[in-house]
Amino acid sequence: MTQSERRARKVSRRWPLISGLVAVLLVIAGGALVAARTSNLIDDEWMEEILEHRNPIWDVPSLVMNFLGGGLFAAIIVPVGTIVALCLVRRFWGALYYGVAAGVSVALVQLLKEIFGRARPLDMLVTSDYGSFPSGHVANAATMAVSLGFIFARTWVWFAGAVYTVLMLLSRTYLGAHWLSDTVGGLLLGAAVAVIVWAPLAAKLQQEAAGRRHR
Predict the structure, then answer these.
(1) What pLDDT shows up at residue 8?
(2) Phi, psi values for residue 96, rounded to 5°
(3) What domains are defined for the chain?
């Protein structure tokens, strides 16, 4: 590889890092904004629509998403299971990448919840911990979706991840566990963390994927 090619590759990886950091800063700015205001027109109108259209038929799938994205299942079983599965298919760099991204995402979510201390909606159908902004469920989903998309680089993986993340976003607002802006913040934060952690590991992940294709 020539020096110009190395320089071009470094530049191409710098932009994802910069864009990810910008997204995190936007989340922080958005969190400060919504925490400082007693009401938000978009959040209020979205929640009014949710309350008007609640139906028992949507309760079960929303509660399933609540289980999949929270508690011990999401905090331990999903990340550990994913890491073990990646190791079994000899995606060791992928396992490291996903583990770091998932851990950083959870840590940032909890930190921002403590900093902003935003109150959750009153009409919740589930019990939740302290702090509404950002949504941990959505951040976890976005981190997983983007991480696995980078690891496997398959269109169907990206599509499945996007669908899962959107369903998680909708379920959190349907259950009244989060305001709409909380879920958007979680989406941006989770995706940004996955991109930021990916940037320095991109070469190793690409080499690992290329090695598997040539076996």
Answers:
(1) 42
(2) -65, -45
(3) 3-213 (1.20.144)
